[in-house]
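Record type: ASSEMBLY
Status: queued
Input:
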Amino acid sequence: EVQLVESGGGLVQPGGSLRLSCAASGFTVSSNYMSWVRQAPGKGLEWVSVIYSGGSTYYADSVKGRFTISRHNSKNTLYLQMNSLRAEDTAVYYCARSLGDTAMVYDYWGQGTLVTVSS
Amino acid sequence: AIWMTQSPSLLSASTGDRVTISCRMSQGISSYLAWYQQKPGKAPELLIYAASTLQSGVPSRFSGSGSGTDFTLTISCLQSEDFATYYCQQYYSFPPTFGQGTKLEIK
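Status: finished
Output:
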């Protein structure tokens, strides 16, 4: 059974850092396209970043230069390192697996982890 | 970026009704459109991709249509578990973008 379990969210001050983790089971992270998608409280969905199976990474303009997506193959875990956090980064962050070769369609999602950026 | 307009934002309906949700794109995207359902406090779930392909395990009362700039999600014979928020998403070009959502509530 495919499962994604996020962790690492919490309250952080503006300018601070957090690292989110997404532990996967039932499939191999490194063989799939994996993304982070966020949802601000009461708002819609916003794509954040993707890492392709080959290792290429891409980011939304709103987080480029501040966030870094990575994976640890032996731990079968996806990460999102978030630096220079801003109030507008406050959201539930979901990791999501892409559907087969359809890079940006997500067939499995984690339960989400809440990041709150506030002083 | 490609933007979409989802309508309506709020839809009131009753169990057994047939409802449609529209998604209009700012430019043509062929059939690179997906639909998701999200219930409060839960992650989104994939319903349809490639505009009209039903994801495995999704009930056949859900259907999608359209291509280019205009797309529709139809739910025939609403069930109680269908009351949720629905999002369209384009994946034709980077960055992938989502509609603002349609909340389907019980009338």
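Annotation: Chain B touches chain A at residues 34, 36, 42-46, 49-50, 55, 87, 89, 91, 94-101 (CB under 8 Å).
Annotation: The first strand of chain B starts at residue 4 and ends at 7.
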